[in-house]
Design a protein that fits this description.
Elements: E1 5-9, E2 30-35, H1 39-54, E3 59-65, E4 68-69, H2 71-74, E5 81-82, E6 91-92, H3 94-102, E7 114-115, E8 118-122, E9 127-131, E10 139-140, H4 157-167, E11 171-174, E12 176-182, E13 188-194, E14 197-202, E15 205-208, H5 224-232, E16 241-243, E17 245-251, E18 262-266, E19 277-282, E20 286-292, H6 294-298, H7 302-313, H8 316-319, E21 327-334, E22 337-339, E23 347-348, E24 351-353, H9 366-383, H10 388-394, H11 396-420, H12 423-439, H13 446-456, H14 461-468, H15 471-494, H16 511-527, E25 538-546, H17 550-557, E26 573-579, E27 588-593, E28 600-608, E29 612-620, E30 626-635, E31 638-647, H18 658-667, H19 671-692, E32 696-700, E33 708-711
Parallel strand pairs: 1-14, 2-3, 2-15, 3-11, 8-18, 15-24, 21-32
Antiparallel strand pairs: 4-5, 6-10, 7-10, 8-9, 12-13, 13-14, 16-22, 17-20, 17-21, 18-19, 19-20, 23-24, 25-31, 26-27, 27-28, 28-29, 29-30, 30-31, 32-33
Helix pairs in contact: 1-4, 1-9, 9-10, 11-14, 12-15, 13-14
């Protein structure tokens, strides 16, 4: 058998052993070895080297990373390539982005796959879309060179971060650690294989940052990293994990990106696909999906994994994520482990573990968790020492803080799943959020802030749970959610409005958007010499996003008064075109209500093709009022349809009728307009999108999966991208 060359990497001369009862300090010129160059290892090197420099101390850091591919091999300019996959969705949270900027290592534009505008939580009733706060940034990136077929496999987040550690002064070795041992003086030694050259690294301190998926899919038994940790820390117990399913869907060339600039969290599956949560992260030419739940826990083998993917894509609320004729390719799948409980005894004399080899925030922001543990350990090593007692005093509290906070996280996610997995509870919460959004400025919306923190990981789970349990939050849910839901359900029943065969979408306009749209409609009223907004006693506004060109939406609005229209059919009301041509000035629409005094007639007076239709109420109940349809482009293949309704109440001419009209003026159920138009706009959206697109998402067979067809004609769920 061929022998390998051996190179010794020894530390500089060290100080004598410490006296009994004193901490072991790193000597000048000490060598610190880091096993694993992912985010945890890179962050530790950056914090340690910068911290040592600020204290006037010299420290040598050597990082061993098997995914590292030097430039001479990669054949690329810029930072070295990161080979393979890191089993991660690649979401960069606002908190993590803040940390990167504070470290002066902002993410370069070339690494950014998508700038995330909003996060959508998909519930059983409707989706709740939460905008990324102003002044904060959220991205999607690729951490490794997978999936295959990417035009930019060298643009990887982990490679960028490792290069930042190298620029801070770390030495990076591309290779694998074979085993670890203790020298006679108690210092750890690592035996590594780097491109056929066996090296022994004698270190003053060793950090294991290799993660729990360092040898994912290996058939060789226990990974060498875990054996090495147990050799140096006999009492180490790795963190508890559970399996996740991650797969990449490639999008055909020229097709619009799925979800565009939104990350979607899916909170429920189906009876034959029980899932606890799923995140969908858009990339330039791919969509990354991460699924956790008992369906994944039970799936054993490649065939079972592919079956879970197929059933997931066939869920009604997932079918409508893409234009139905989009061709999707299953680029790759993996089933990594996710940490759910912290490790035991993750440190000893001159050795410690960081990152998800120790702990992480439950289901959220593993990269930020890696930075937090790396920073805590680096500060401990520099300020307290490298013996087990010093590490326990300095680093131990940071690990315990994660353990404690994850107990609260388990409660938060349990409540989250219960609510969003129930059609009734999710409707109540959705209505409470919408009520708050329509009447309260963004900084004061408590429910929205709670949901944002859960979705983005923007606060400690203990604090999130405290905010969830506040009486003010429950009061908002009761008054703005439960009572409004009961009222709306009664109105739907009265008018015969059934939610069946089409999706449910947001049409309510937020407080900030309402002010902007009011100004826009005021300009239209002034231009067409209609009464100003201040003249009207009643005013309502609705907006919905439709994934179709403006001309097609405008064409469908022309059927407003036709008997065969697929929307706006409330019981007790007949709406018919009685004169003129659709979408042409002079078109007359008659509203015949079961109570004759509430009937009226609309006349189409002004038209801007594919943009605007202005109706004036000619006579009857709302005489002098206006109904305006406005269509605005949202992106290349979507538009926003807004509706503005405003009128004055009639005044009784006779003594007997005046009290009746006075009561109607003050107690008119304005929410009836909201219920009817919300239902009708959702029907309109579903019909227009179905006409605009063909009959199914086509999933091409990849190297690991059979071909599958996913049809999308109807859905009882809602579409994340289409929430305003």
């Amino acid at each position: 058998m061929a022998t390998r060359a051996t190179e010794q990497i020894a530390p500089d001369p060290v100080a004598p052993p410490p006296r009994r009862g004193r901490s072991t300090r790193l000597p000048p010129g000490a060598t610190v070895a880091v096993v694993g160059g992912g985010p945890a290892g890179a962050f530790f090197a950056i914090h340690l080297l910068r911290g040592a420099a600020s204290r006037g101390r010299a420290i040598r850091v050597v990082i061993i990373e098997r995914h590292h591919q030097p430039l001479a091999v990669a054949g690329e300019s810029g930072p070295a390539c990161w080979r393979g996959c890191n089993h991660c969705a690649g979401g960069i949270s606002p908190r993590l982005n803040d940390v990167l900027r504070s470290l002066n290592v902002p993410i370069p534009e070339s690494l950014v796959q998508r700038r995330i505008r909003a996060v959508t939580i998909q519930g059983h009733w409707k989706n709740i879309t939460l905008d990324v706060p102003r002044g904060r940034e959220m991205f999607s990136v690729y951490r490794g060179s997978r999936p295959a077929g990417r035009p930019d496999p060298q643009q990887t987040f982990d490679g960028f971060l490792l290069d930042a550690a190298r620029q801070a002064g770390a030495e990076v070795l591309g290779g694998e650690m074979l085993r670890a041992e203790r020298a006679d003086d108690g210092r750890p030694r690592l035996i590594c294989d780097t491109a056929g050259l066996q090296r022994t690294i004698a270190a003053d301190f060793v950090v294991f940052a290799c993660g729990v998926n360092g040898r994912l899919g290996s058939a060789t038994g226990e990974p060498p990293e875990l054996r090495a940790i147990r050799t140096l820390i006999p009492g180490f117990r790795p963190p508890a994990t559970r399996r996740a399913l991650i797969f990449e869907l490639g999008i055909e060339s020229g097709a619009p990106s799925l979800l565009d600039d939104e990350i979607c969290f899916v909170e429920y599956g189906s009876g034959n696909l029980p899932i606890e949560m799923c995140s969908l992260v858009p990339k330039r030419d791919f969509l990354t999906a991460v699924i956790v739940g008992s369906a994944v826990d039970r799936a054993v083998g490649a065939a079972a994994i592919r079956a879970v993917v197929g059933r997931f894509l066939d869920l009604p609320h997932i079918r409508k994520l893409a234009p139905p004729d989009t061709r999707l390719r299953l680029a790759c799948t993996c089933s990594p482990r996710m940490v759910v409980r912290s490790a035991r005894n993750p440190y000893g004399d001159r050795v410690a573990a960081i990152g998800d080899m120790v702990t992480t925030r439950l289901y959220k922001d593993g990269i930020l968790s890696a930075e937090r543990t790396a920073r805590a350990l680096a500060d401990t090593v520099l300020d307290l020492g490298v013996d087990a007692g010093a590490i326990r005093r300095g680093y131990g509290p940071a690990v315990h803080a994660f353990t404690r906070d994850n107990r609260f996280a388990a409660i938060v996610f349990l409540l989250h799943r219960i609510v969003f997995g129930s059609s009734v509870l999710s409707r109540v919460l959705y209505q409470a959020v919408l009520t708050e959004r329509k009447g309260t400025p963004a900084p004061r919306r408590r429910l929205e802030q709670i949901l944002w923190k859960i979705a983005s990981g923007d606060d400690r789970y203990e604090q999130i749970l405290r905010e969830m349990m506040r009486p003010s939050a429950w009061w908002s849910i009761l008054i703005g959610g439960a009572l409004v839901t009961l009222r709306n359900f009664a109105a739907e029943t009265f008018f015969g409005l059934r939610w069946k065969g089409f999706g449910r979408f947001t049409t309510g306009v937020a407080w900030e958007r309402m002010e902007t749209k009011r100004l826009a409609f005021s300009r239209w009223l002034a231009e067409f010499r209609l009464p100003s907004r201040s003249h009207f006693e009643f005013e309502r506004m609705y907006t919905i996003r439709i994934r179709a060109p403006r001309a097609r939406v405008f064409e469908e609005l022309g059927r407003f008064g036709e008997p065969d229209r697929p929307y706006l059919h409330p019981r007790w009301v007949q709406i018919r075109r009685v004169e003129g041509a659709p979408n042409q000035p002079g078109c007359i629409i008659q509203y015949s209500v079961v109570i004759p005094h509430l009937s009226f007639r609309l006349a189409l007076e002004h038209v801007v093709p594919a943009q605007l239709a202005v109706y004036r109420v000619q006579n009857g109940f709302a005489r002098g009022g206006v109904l305006i349809f406005e269509i605005e482009s949202a992106d290349l293949d979507a538009c926003d349809l807004s509706i503005y309704v405003a009128f004055n109440f009639r005044r009784g001419r006779r003594r007997r009728s005046r009290p009746i009209w006075w009561l109607l003026h003050h107690f008119f159920p304005a929410f009836v307009h909201d219920v009817i138009w919300n239902h009708s706009l959702c029907q309109l959206k579903d019909h227009v999108e179905a006409r605009h697109h063909s009959d199914g998402i086509r999933l091409d067979a990849g190297p690991e999966s059979p071909a599958t067809n996913v049809h999308t004609r109807s859905s009882t769920g809602s579409t994340p991208r289409d929430l305003s």
